[in-house]
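ARCHIVE ENTRY
Sequence with per-residue tokens
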Amino acid sequence: MPTPSEIDLHKEFGNTKLEADAVVEGISICQIFDLSASDLFIRWQTFVINRHGGDASVKPTRERLLEVRSMLQQELERKSSQRRGGATGSAMKLPRHKERVHYDKNSVEGLLQGMVSGSQREFMKTPQSTKRVGLLKGGNVSASHGRTMFSPMTPSAFAEPSPSAIRYSKRTNMGHTEDTLRSELPPLNLPETRIPIFVSEHGARVVESEEISSDESDSENSRDENGKGAGPRRVEKRMRYMFEKMAARTETVNKRIERMAISVKTEYNIEALANPTYPHQNTVTAVGRIMNIGSDDSQTAAPISSDTLYLETSRRLGNGRRIPLDVRSAPSFSLFPGQVVAVEGKNLKGTEFSALKFRQLPRLVHAPVDDRKDYAGAFSVMVACGPYTLADNFEYEPLVDLVDKAIAESPCAVFLLGPFVSESHPMLKDGQTDMLPEEIFHMKISPHLTRLRNGLPSSASVFLVPSTDELCCSYVSFPQPPLSHSVLLQLGVPEGVVSLSNPAQISVNGVNFAISNIDILLHLVKEEVSRLPALSDRLPRLAWHLVEQHHFYPLSPPPADCAAILSSQDAKLKMQVMPDILITPSQLKQFAHIHENSILLNPGYSSKGLSGGTFAKINVHSPSDVCSVNTMLGDSERVFPADCTSVAIVRI
């Protein structure tokens, strides 16, 4: 096909004025991919529809035509791989030195061998004829493939960086501060010779072993109505995350309501809580769970509003019955399905409970700095959440810059939250790479973790937190145990890097951190209904629901596309202590907010599509610095860790 001229391109693109460099790039694309000017214009229209929603104002600049070139190259590679993988039909002849593979219903090995090719096919064979896709037990990923780790479709085989990688390297907002909290505090000065930070975990730890400890299952039976008793006892249970009975789920819901009912009764010195399903002419206090009409059936659930609310009782307080909840007389509320509430109101006819006021739920114990024996000095923390690579490659440019920043600033602790290899990455979803997730982690992430560990002082700590979107973690439910030691070794994670469970509750030098690496904020924002709430900022208010409910996932039922929420592991989702800093990463807008002496933080994602994201820097000061600031401001109240903490959310 003859190469189109500049006139042909101007004719096809019509009124759109092409710059000189765009014309040169367009002619080059036509030459390489054997396209006419009309074909190029059709590909341009497809690109505008897919990437820009069909916006007619988008002009064909050289940078955008480079993206079109990348799209055509990926399409060509995909077709080439399909041809190499074998074509169906009799026209495709096999070489004489290869035998034709015959498949039948009993030939599992033959079926698997036909699904992959090349080094992958050799990787799946073992001397014992064991078919295992993924990591080899007792070995590492790099050894399993020998030298040839890449296929022609692997991103690292491309000679040139992707257009988004070029734009990322030329970004102008690097280091820009997106949000700050308590910026009036003085700069943090850490001594050159640092004392190792003290880290301890709170609550029931999620473990991967078959036999786990639970401090929740029967502890309610050992308490009286006022919440007093001998305390929780240790019970051995098996973790079954692939199957749960409906009875176990209802028992978990009943325990949550009962636990909160006991706390409300003790907090407000109430003699007896009322059954809201019975008629009451006088104002009574009831405790129950908010439900939305049809919320048990996620396919037919009505949008939540003040007219679709029900109040569900526990078995002891109301035989588990539900009653419509009228909130028209309540001056202020913020409600969502699954929320446990204490509500004052009346039930005049026995058919509807009319709420007059929602009581504040009891808070977990929150001690000031002076009452904490383990509060030790100043320290700094860096928090980042995946994904750590752009959407069109696996080069992990944001992770590289993040590690460089951490080494330069030398924080006392670094929290890296997954996903590291996300199942929602476009190239994995479209099958544009032959690399296994473990290979990507071992080759693209572990070297930077090693560089981070070696670049920080020995007193610093590096923590990894898994994600429900993580392909290198075999537990796709919530909560998740930490990555086991054997998996960390097989992924090439260096010594000194510690994996935490998800969620995690830990204390760093006496400051309580709570980390929930599931996008609960995105799930709540679609389900909440409110009127003049006490916390007016919506995104921090969504995070505060977790603190108020003493639970890392209070929403029920979860969205259909959400990871399974294990009711059998509800003890691991219960907050054991009041968090000083609650970290809830979300794709919603990043924020840092302080409420009731707790910091609510969404550090954002390290990458968003084809651009870089954000991370958070946390500086915890000594109480003396805060006391000097409070003296200037005329504030003489007790000092909490949140008062000693400054936060900055920074663009990568």
About this structure: The chain has a mean pLDDT of 81.
